[in-house]
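Example 338, ligand nicotinamide-adenine-dinucleotide.
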Amino acid sequence: MTIRIGVIGTGAIGREHIHRCDKVLQNSTVVAVNDINVEAVDQVVKEQKLKAKIYADGHELIKANDVDAVLVTAIGDKHEEFVLAALEAKKPVFCEKPMAPTAEACKHIVDAETKCGKRLVQVGFMRPFDLGYLALKKILDSKTLGEPLIVNCRHFNYTNVSYYTTDMAINDTFIHEIDVLRWLLGDDYESVQVFFPRRSCNSPEKVGDPQIVIVRTKKNVIVNAQLYVFTKYAYDVQCEVIGEHGIAALPEPVAIPVLKDGQISHPVLIDWKTRFIDAYDVELQAFVDNVSAGKFTVGASAWDGYAAAVAADACVRAQKSGKVETIEMPPKPSFYNK
Ligand code: NAD
Ligand code: ISE
């Protein structure tokens, strides 16, 4: 069965996911697209030679009879509105991260899905599908390093997004670490403190960049994460786990060293699109397969989206207060353990 997908938001990741769902994945096709930027939609339809209907309104797209499932890839603060509309229409929905920028907005989605009586939401946290993170988790789960004690993370971007704000370093960028580390460590979060080192001349005036986020987990692992969004030199994601008996870290992306003109050099990535390209493919194939099976068994749930937002809210409070802020994680309802 081919799943007919409607996509709301044809910006950077919308275009990537449209290509995957229409040209790369098994059993999916894109039949409908929408964006408030009409030129962006026209362009994607032409460039990708889509046989998709253009909708002026995302809500009309959701209601369309030939749309089996919805992808929400608009900007973060529009996610709640469209995910709730998809749930109202009882349609499966893949929502890019963050599920919504605040825990309060995410809770509305959790409540609406629970009311539907079955899981219909998958959130676009793709790192647990990445081969590097999967290999790292296998080593941690084997206990060959003993227990994890400290995690050092780096999340550097080469961004030029004009609407980026200080809190987005948390709820748009660090949210990936928040999600993946819960899964990687099999742990949850206790408290957080955020530090702002000297500002970078690369960063816009209004954005506090870089930032250092120190998180303490329930099992007392300390996460030390460096976020630097406007590096202007690399897209760099690192994760190193220091255990009782040894250290394990994410592998570097493949890059061929070239010996030439008296030096050895290799390119580094500047874009998220290539860094996690395989993980995006696997997570979206999982969504299509979940929809085909009529059951969501793989991928981040709305609860995962909410849990990440609860921690992110505390990080944003810590950005403002400069103090240690507690992360109050509510217990997971049985609906999400099924
Ligand atoms: P973008 O700015 O390139 O695109 C966002 C699009 O949303 C724009 O085309 C905009 O016109 C459209 N839009 C805004 N309001 C809308 C509305 N009411 N209806 C329809 N369309 C609307 O941003 P992006 O980089 O593509 O990011 C989009 C989302 O995807 C964000 O939540 C971001 O965090 C997420 N994202 C995830 C990853 C990842 O690694 N998983 C990577 C990039 C972006
Ligand atoms: C972007 O939205 C992503 O999700 C990228 O993976 C992340 O590295 C970047 O910081 C976000 O803005």
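Summary: The longest strand covers residues 148-156.
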